[in-house]
């Protein structure tokens, strides 16, 4: 599914933040927050509203990433 590049960056940053090593959490949280703030400025939504709007897209993105990872691991076996 084709998505807008800005949306893709937000979803990837969200995924990275959720799945990263603990040592990377702070850096990736900062990047996610920066992308959200840029989008918030353009849309005039609050952070909570923006996250609510993106939540279903994020879960679909995450499911696709996990499926892709599982397929990659399966090919390595």
Task: Give a brief rundown of this model.
With 77 residues, the protein is mainly alpha-helical. It has 3 helices and no strands.
Structure notes:
- With 77 residues, the protein is mainly alpha-helical.
- 83% of the residues lie in helices and 0% in strands.
- It contains three helices and no strands.
- It has helices spanning 5-19, 25-43, 47-76.
- Helix 1 packs antiparallel against helix 2.
- It is globular and about 50 Å long.
- The model has no long low-confidence stretch (mean pLDDT 91).
Taken in chain order, the helices and strands follow as HHH
**What assembly state would you assign to the polypeptide chains in this entry?**
single chain
Gross morphology is: globular
Helix content bin: over 70%
Task: Report how far the terminal alpha carbons are from each other.
Answer: 28 Å
- Mean pLDDT across residues: 91
Q: Which structural class should the secondary elements be placed in?
A: mainly alpha
How much of the polypeptide forms β-strand, as a percent range? under 5%
CA radius of gyration is 14 Å
With helices defined by DSSP (H or I, 4 residues minimum), what is the helix count?
3
> Major β-sheet, in short?
none
Which stretches are low in confidence, meaning pLDDT under 50 for 5 or more residues running? none
> How many runs of DSSP E, i.e. beta strands?
0
């Amino acid at each position: 599914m084709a998505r807008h590049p800005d949306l893709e960056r937000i979803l990837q940053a969200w995924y990275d933040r959720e799945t990263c090593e603990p040592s990377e959490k702070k850096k990736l949280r900062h990047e996610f927050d920066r992308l959200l703030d840029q989008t918030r400025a353009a849309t005039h939504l609050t952070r909570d509203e923006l996250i609510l709007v993106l939540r279903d897209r994020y879960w679909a993105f995450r499911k696709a990433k996990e499926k892709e990872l599982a397929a990659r691991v399966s090919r390595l076996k």
